[in-house]
Amino acid sequence: MTRRNDDVSGGGDRRSGGDGDGRTVAIVGAGAAGTSVFAQLVAALPRAGGAPVGSVLVVDPSPPGWGLAFGDDDPLLMCNSAVNVNSLLPDRPDDFADHLRARGWTGAPDTCVPRAAMAAYCADRWSSARDTAARAGVTVRHLPVRAASIRIAGGPPRLRLDDGSELVADDVVLATGVHRPRVPRGFAAFTGHPRYLDSPYPSARLRAALGAEGRRVLVLGSRQSAVDAALLLCRDGHRTTLTSPSGSLPAVRLSLHAPPRDFPPLERMARLDPDDPLLERRLTRCVVEAVRLLGDRPLRAQTSSAADPVRRLAEETALAEAGVCLWPGVAVAVIEALTAFADGLPADRTRALMRRFDWFVGRYLTALTVVNARRLLAHCATGALRVAPAYPESAVFADGVWRVSAPGSGTPETYDHVVNATGFHPPEVTWRADGTELLLRPGDTGDTVLDRLEADLRVRRAPGAPPERVWLAGTGTHVRIPFANHLRTMTRQARWVAGQVASGG
Ligand SMILES: Cc1cc2nc3c(=O)[nH]c(=O)nc-3n(C[C@H](O)[C@H](O)[C@H](O)COP(=O)(O)OP(=O)(O)OC[C@H]3O[C@@H](n4cnc5c(N)ncnc54)[C@H](O)[C@@H]3O)c2cc1C
């Protein structure tokens, strides 16, 4: 087995697991979700019954905290959720604000900070949990490598790592986040093309791919990732066009912040019948009634109905800045009420529900922060940024340029680069056809994607089969939980998983 100079604290070599006292826990993925599991696991150990945990192995090629979601140090990339919903510890909702204030931050808790501040916070909480574990005699090791699969064939789970080595653990938590970019309509053939970038992240890669000279760039997408791409590109002097099938930008709000009050109409959602043919209308009514509790201003006077996306952006930015935009106050409560409503529904029902509400989620629940909206408008005003009226029907690359045609556009438009910013596939875990191995990537023919999860968040070979000692946390739970990528949902799951693992559950 290969040995590396891994980041170690605590006792002796437990690399292969199970060769010392206590159980070995492996956490795969040390981004926000993995860090939340780790911190809450360490906190739970002193009061946990059952066989004690002797070592924790954290497997991630990136440094703890610096995952795809938050681990980019470009200050233009902001969190979308406010400081007051970004605590890694659900029992201490002010933990992130406390961390920031201890470093001189004086902002309001319902505002957003750069994503790197969140990554630094995760890294800090990771280090302090590691020190606490070491004082309790628990070995903690960060293995900077990617895990490929988990072999589950009778004995304890065996993790296969990308460097060819293997790890044995008693319990495994998978917290791998998103990483596989979606393939935008009409561009599948260009994956790997030197002038096509599959994602705007990390920003350093985007900068390196485009160089310092001003380029003409087509960004595919018009939601959060596309907004990030536009902000980075325009700042760096590139002329940028956003295009998406909807052609519309998200709505504008201060932030996704903690609910300012209770919303009884949203509590009603839990009692709705999932099979009711009028479900969509009834859910919408719950949301509208909840918004009314925040003030008398009619909902239609809180948003713009302008057809032109930039005009709509300008009008909604003005509303948000004037403080008359009340609907964002319900967003977190709506996410959590919908999550509770859908929890336990069959996966295909949840997917169908989410599809029906995609317009609402894409435009309102994942709305833009007013800071980013203002920045976009400034780039539109200088002509550096525009939103295309239609999505391309064809794209060819020849003689060093892209020629892109949209319906009704006449002459094709030319671009130097295309950047895909349509987001990421949710993480997929796949059972090998013989049922002995879980792959942390899409499988081959005959393999089956894990598409079902019980409330315990443990992996099973089939419905009704006994649970394996493998838990999912974070975005991987999307097969059961809508909004599995909502940080507050994730930290509560992490608390549950950490408690189960700590007690040997
Ligand atoms: C660009 C972006 C911005 C976002 N911003 C917000 C926001 O502002 N607010 C919010 O609430 N949500 C945001 N989200 C949603 C986000 O997915 C959730 O908040 C999620 O909880 C982030 O934590 P995570 O640990 O799942 O992902 P990450 O922090 O991305 O961590 C995943 C980790 O898993 C590691 N990993 C992946 N595969 C393997 C493997 N095979 N072996 C070992 N390690 C592996 C990666 O290296 C990475 O470090 C954002 C998502 C993205 C993609």
TrEMBL record:
InterPro entries: FAD/NAD-bd_sf, HpyO/CreE_NAD-binding, L-asp_N-monooxygenase_NS-form
Lineage top rank: taxon: Bacteria
Region Disordered: start-end pairs: 1-22
SUPFAM superfamilies: FAD/NAD(P)-binding domain
Span of domain FAD-dependent urate hydroxylase HpyO/Asp monooxygenase CreE-like FAD/NAD(P)-binding: 26-178
Pfam families found in the cross-reference section: NAD_binding_9
PANTHER family: BLR0577 PROTEIN
Name used for this protein in its record: FAD-dependent urate hydroxylase HpyO/Asp monooxygenase CreE-like FAD/NAD(P)-binding domain-containing protein
Organism listed in the record: Streptomyces mobaraensis (Streptoverticillium mobaraense)
